[in-house]
């Protein structure tokens, strides 16, 4: 190996490589001289430094101080105040932008597509605002979604997202809430240590089993061995609720009074009061206990409706501990009606081995639509009958009305006798009514079925409502046939005046609403939330395929409440009043019987030939009324729970 290397070195010696040349710049013959600085005399005269005026320096300092203060305020608000002020500024900016958009662009001459584009972009702005702000804004978004059927179609499509589960608060934030609420009882302990003192150590599940706009629910176990649902208010609600409602009042006034000239801002204080009451869990516990007492006092409801027990000794204003109930949502139709095998098999596909279902336990909520599952073996009719019964009793008898009966707040479980029992949850949003109001409301409902237009008009006028027929239609959630022809002709589509532009229809809707409420002081505020209850119950009925005649049930409860209230008051009536009452009772029974016949005829057609059910047909008629009378276009599937 050494010889070849020596050979290569010899060749390099005989033939050296050519020398490389490098370019070092142009050649010069100038002799190198060191650098000599120029003399001072050759330099120009020095210029004086530019001096800022005293006013400019003062303004710059102000700008610097302001920027620093705003930056500090923003960081404090973000990290110590849950961005409360930033959220309100975002609300004011968004609402101002929406107001300007409508003022500048919602004008005569615009075609339907241009007006639809205005509605679409502003619906997106409201949607983004509510999602970004969260908290009570989620609740406001749900309220908009519940009434989306009377809003532009683009709004109907977007606002169904508010019924999805909201983000959960972290475990660290849950610990902070526990420490704030129970720190006086257990000084010096962390939130996790307090949880281990209140409940069986290690039983408090750190991940919530459900999360809503105001609170989230964790499962735990008391030292007595009872499983409980621990409802914990999200920590930012306490800081944000006051500011949020204040901004809500201002925004409502801006749009209802200044923008559209609608007499609706008078309802805002009552709505804010009810929303604020939802954040007080002492109030919710009281509502739950009161409802349980009312149910126990009514023989027709006892055993069919259940309210979980609240453990007040371990509950506070922001933490509520209640009995844990295993049940199925009233919207889970496949699970409710599937064949019953045992409790652990509920929700599992048919023919699942018992060993698997016993190991996994019941599935209360289906992730994908599989109609062939084991369930509770219940009839939709029995479930929905109980659902309508309890809320009718609350409206007409108790005067203690649950105003948020959406499917997430109604669980169904199977009793040993094979009958359903409804479990009512979330008792934060209630309205209380006076005996006088309950009597008038029951009389109004019964008069709708006896076509007693004088009584209908008298009650509507006493409540400050100008158009009794439209109010009757809004109450029934179907066109009222017993009054003048204003509503009845709309059912057939014969409305004089010819077609109107989209802008004219919107203007007409504004005028009709202004005419509808003629006396703000006389209108009962409770009607807002009672109407919400009726609407949600209607949706629940439609979700289960409209198995019951909801209007018939309501009418019978109204008649029963009137009879009971007069008997309790010991009222004596003259023979003329008794004859009139007898005749109205006969007429009432005839109308209810005809309504029931129409319901069953619709059910038979639906089963034999398919198509729409009873509730869908009423919706179709109400769409025509809304379109022709108010210029409101209702499109698409209005069942927001299954959208």
Largest sheet: 4 strands, antiparallel
Low-confidence stretches: 485-496, 629-643
Number of strands: 10
Distance between the termini: 85 Å
Percentage of β-strand residues = 5-15%
Helix percentage range: 40-55%
How confident overall, as mean pLDDT?
80
Structural class: alpha+beta
Oligomer: single chain
Tally of alpha and pi helices: 23
Based on CA atoms alone, the radius of gyration comes out at 35 Å
- Order of the strands making up the biggest sheet: 1-2-3-5
Dominant shape: globular
Task: Please sum up the structure shown.
InterPro entries: ABC1_dom, ADCK1_dom, Kinase-like_dom_sf, Mito_struct-func_regulator. The protein has 643 residues and is an alpha+beta fold. The chain is built from 23 helices and ten strands.
Provide tags for this entry.
alpha+beta; four-stranded antiparallel β-sheet; four-stranded mixed β-sheet; 23 helices; membrane; transmembrane; Kinase-like_dom_sf; transmembrane helix
Secondary structure elements and pairings:
Elements: H1 2-14, H2 54-80, H3 84-105, H4 112-133, H5 136-146, H6 153-158, H7 171-182, H8 191-198, E1 210-211, E2 215-221, E3 227-233, H9 235-259, H10 268-277, H11 281-297, E4 305-306, E5 319-323, E6 328-329, H12 333-337, H13 354-360, H14 380-398, E7 400-402, E8 410-414, E9 420-424, E10 430-432, H15 435-450, H16 453-462, H17 468-476, H18 485-491, H19 502-516, H20 526-543, H21 550-569, H22 575-609, H23 614-630
Parallel strand pairs: 4-9
Antiparallel strand pairs: 1-2, 2-3, 3-5, 6-8, 7-10, 8-9
Helix pairs in contact: 3-4, 3-9, 4-5, 7-8, 9-10, 14-20, 14-21, 15-16, 15-21, 15-22, 16-17, 19-23, 21-22
